[in-house]
Amino acid sequence: MNFDVEINVTLTNKIIFSFIIFVSPLMVLPAAMASQNSVLGDAWNTLSDNVSQTWNEPQHYDLYVPAITWHARFAYDKEKTDRYNERPWGIGFGQTRWDESGNWHGLYLMAFKDSYNKWEPIGGYGWEKIWRPLRDDNFRLGLGYTLGATARDNWKYIPIPVILPLASVGYGPATFQMTYIPGTYNNGNVYFAWLRFQF
């Protein structure tokens, strides 16, 4: 096995490990907490049930296409933003479930070029409350959250848990979905968006 193949195998293993470590506990932890009958236990039970049901009963599959990474100019030195990559080439796949209230649940795994033009994987579960404000039911707006794990080259691809807001605008099988990564000066404060195509 040559060096390049070894690197690719190692990176793939880390991506899979990240997903297993941070997403699969969502299906297991609530069972241990259920006996406490607390608000936290109920929340974990709901989350676990939603993740499990979305995994076992997908209604559609999704293609994810990263579209834009924008570093908030008010939070960065210009010399940094001038050299950052804001075209996150990549691809991802997932599965969708629409619940009885019409809300969106999704599981996904995506890889894209980060700010330093290095590959960054992210995987997890997402939920959005969906509104259909027009007579045309194909048009929808969404607001929710995602949680899962990512890994970055500048952090040696150590798995990092993420909890981020989600928002979307969709029509028919196409959805423009986005998040905002908060941060401090010269760190974080990034708007990240992608297209999600349902098939």
Shape: globular
Number of helices: 4
State the major sheet.
Answer: 8 strands, antiparallel, barrel
Spatial sequence of strands, sheet with the most strands:
1-2-3-4-5-6-7-8
How large is the share of residues in beta strands?
35-45%
How many domains make up the coordinates?
Answer: 2
Explain the overall architecture:
It is found in: Cell outer membrane. Homodimer. Its main location: membrane. The structure is a single chain. With 199 residues, the protein is an alpha+beta fold. It has two domains: 25-57; 58-198, Porin. The protein is 27% helix and 43% strand. It has helices spanning 3-23, 25-33, 39-56, 78-83, and strands spanning 60-71, 90-98, 104-113, 119-131, 139-150, 160-171, 174-181, 190-198. The longest helix is centred in the N-terminal third of the chain and has 21 residues, at 3-23.
